[in-house]
Amino acid sequence: MYKITVLKILVLIILVSCVSIKLNAQKIELNINKKPLNEVFLELHNKYGIQFSFNDKLLSICIVSNYGSFNSPKQAISSLLQDCNLAFELNKNVFIIYAKREIKEISKPILHIFSGRISDKTNTEALPFSNIEINSNGSIADVNGNFSFKSFDSVAVLKISHIGYFVLDTIFSSGTNQNLKLIPSIVDLQEVAVSSNAISYDSYIGEKSGLIKLNHKIATFLPGINDNTIFNLLRLQPGILASAEQTNDYTIWGSYKGQNLILFDGIPLFSLSSFNDKIGAINPLIVKDIEIIKGGYNSNIGGRVGGVINITGKSGNPNNFNANLNINNQTLSGILGIPFKGKSSLQVSFRQSYYQLLNWNNIFNINEKKISDTYSPDFMFQDINIKFSGKNGNSDNYYLFC
Questions:
Q1: pLDDT of 237-289, one tens digit each?
Q2: CB 3.0 to 4.6 Å from 112: which of 1, 137, 174, 252, for a disulfide?
Q3: Torsion-angle region of 353 (φ positive above 0: left; ψ -120 to 50: alpha; else: beta)
Q4: For the segment 289-326, what is each residue's pLDDT rounded down to a tens digit?
């Protein structure tokens, strides 16, 4: 039995060696006359199946001419790059092409810094607490979407994910204050036919116990989102109930309003009571991210024995004007963003009710008969939020809110 096992191992080694010799001995024929290097690599990929990763704009400015036969892809690529001040690195059968950099002779390796800001591509809004993976090392962005990472490698494999957005998977060069923009992912659902069947139970366990991240991108599709209280969205989540099925109070894992902590841009809110059980204290148009921690949070939050609702407001678009106006049968609401020199932004949001306009007696000028046991309420709701946010010369974020 021992002889048979040794024989199998020898046969396997011979087969792997044959495959390796065949790959290394692959001949490459070049007949190139004044072509951009990016087009040359595309031809090599289509003809020989060689995989590349490169900056298309960087390679398009390098015009090459090359003729001859090469015994391996490495020899052919080295010959093509010698006049373009470029180099390559082979990583898992993929040739990564990058620009050469001057390397000074030093006794210690260079520690490279990777830092940047993660934002929405459509409106440059910062994406807080995004998940980041750099060279298989996990990290997370701060509340303003900023991150920083140090490595001895000048080029890293970067993967960024955020709920409601497509995953960004790319090659990342070292540098500071780099802008990384994610594309929103909105998928139209097809019609679903629901029929009776046996009850099935499914469970989902997240990576962190007691943590809920709400996708603010789908909030605009909820009915009445332009003025409804925030509890209409929270009460749909597991572990959160409206106290006595009302919208002016809530419980998180058995903890009532006074035992929970609500933060809006780091400011504690002591009351979120709604107006007429319909209009909430916070305008949903200025909310960007909602994070719910039902239990097991760190001591730096403190101050409560129940859960935590961490609400992050929009920081605005410092480059372009933007506006949003909503109207329904209760209120008129909107938000206006004004940029300032590409470094800061002023946001103004408002809500205004118009119940008095729906009085038919006022519309048709009908004189009501005064009856002693009849009472017509006269009330109005209006609010305004103003937020000024931006960056200083050191890329530190600041904001003023009222």
A1: 777 776 655 555 677 877 777 788 888 888 888 776 666 666 777 777 888 88
A2: 174
A3: beta
A4: 888 888 767 777 766 778 888 888 888 888 888 888 88
The answer to whether residues 307 and 255 touch, using CB atoms and an 8 Å cutoff, is yes
In a domain, 193, yes or no: no
Q: Cβ(355)–Cβ(348) under 8 Å?
A: no
Nearest CA-CA partner of 338 in 317, 310, 360, 307: 317
Q: Does 337 share its domain with 360? A: yes
341 conformational bin, left if phi > 0, alpha if psi -120 to 50, beta if neither: left
Q: b/e per residue, 250-282, with b = 16+ CB within 10 A?
A: bbbeebebeebbbbbbeeeeeebebbeebbbbb
| Count of the separate structural domains present in the chain | 3
Which candidate, 102, 93, 112, 25, places its Cα nearest to that of 53? 93
| CATH, residue 119 | 2.60.40.1120
**Local structure of residue 13 (DSSP, 8 states):** H
DSSP bridge pairs for 98: 87
Which positions ≥6 away from 114 have C-beta within 8 Å? 134, 148, 149, 150, 151, 156, 158, 172, 174, 175, 178
* Domain range enclosing 129: 112-182
- Of 99, 134, 151, the residue at which a domain comes to its end is 99
Helix, strand, coil percentages (3-state) for the chain, rounded to 5, are 20, 40, 45
**In this structure, are 218 and 330 located in the same domain?**
yes
Q: Assess whether 170 and 298 both reside in one domain.
A: no
Rounded to two decimals, the pTM is 0.49
Contacts of 392 by beta carbon, 8 Å cutoff, 6+ apart: 398
The residue to which tokens 């946001």 are assigned: 347
Distance CA 81, CA 99 (A): 10
Residue of 104, 98, 105, 87 whose CA lies nearest to 173: 98
